[in-house]
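During the reporting period the student researcher (J.K.) took over the structure-prediction task from the postdoctoral fellow and processed the backlog of single-chain submissions. One of the processed entries is reproduced below for the supervisory committee.
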Amino acid sequence: MADGHAQRGPAAALEAGFAHRAAQRSAWLTAGTILLIGTVMVAVSQGVNDLGLGQVAQILLRDLVPAGQFADVTVIQEKIVWHLRLPRVAMAVVGGAGLAVTGVMMQAITRNPLVSPFTIGLSPAAAFGASLAILFGALEAGFVGKYLTVGGAFLSSLLCAALVLLIAGLRAVSATTIILAGIGLTYLFSALTATIQFVATEEQLAAIVHWTFGSVNAAGWDEVMVASLLLVVAVPVFLNLAWVMNAIGAGDETAQSLGYNLRRVRLTTAVLSVLVTSGIIAFTGVIGFVGLVAPHMARLIIGNDHRWLIPFSMIVGALLLLVADTLGRSVFAPAVIPVGIVVAYVGVPLFVHLILRQRQVAGP
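J.K. obtained the following structure tokens:
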């Protein structure tokens, strides 16, 4: 009998430890979600004509609550929120979440914490495609020119991804090959973009530089829907691969011994990450910092277990990009600082602060 208690003791303690850790992670997810919702409300209220939080709530919940329940709003205020501010805020949330989750997945399959959509060449490739479209007349094409620029960015980033996967496939899909191919193509597309800037007119150069800053200024509901659809397709697959990512973190040999086909897993993850990233940066321009730093921030807070890390990194990425965009259009209003610039100013201090506070990264 005593032996039975002795055997159950360590198992019970281990089970209690897992339950406690799961409760902590659930609390972080809940707190992050609540914070994100609150930040969305504040972000929508900020602008040239500030609105109260009661007015924002009244507008967003107009079909659920009687008129004037929270505050009185005008038709103009409703149009400002629904057609100007909310699409921009939604694009920041979706874009930040998408860049963060693709950063997590790329870091997982390569087992390299420095990998992001930017470091494997996708963002520089998108900048080249947009620059090429601008050079060949997108500015003069009027309304169609916007879609020419977006299409050029999207196709160019897909081309870069195809080259990375082709090179990796020739040498077998390995983490090192993907990283090295991405680094090489990053320099190539950066050089190509610089060449276009050198021969562009002043007007074209200004447009190219502005696009490379990264911005959600021009986001509309169509862009939000496309980016959201890509996330809806990719995220369930990523969550389904969470255990595989945990196994890869313990080493390829461990993952293979558990029966996982790492070649197929890496290829699937890379293709979906490319589609999500390309779909986002084609609309927002180059925002390279979120995909690198948001996964680290999430990992330092919630640990390495991808079952929790994947959703939490999306929350962190959404918060990071949303806060950066809100500060960019509020601090120096009416001037608007592109979010690609502000996100570095916001993210770096937070990242350094977390690193200094965290003595060791919690395991799964």
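The committee noted the following: The first helix runs from residue 2 to 45.
J.K. will present the remaining backlog at the next meeting.
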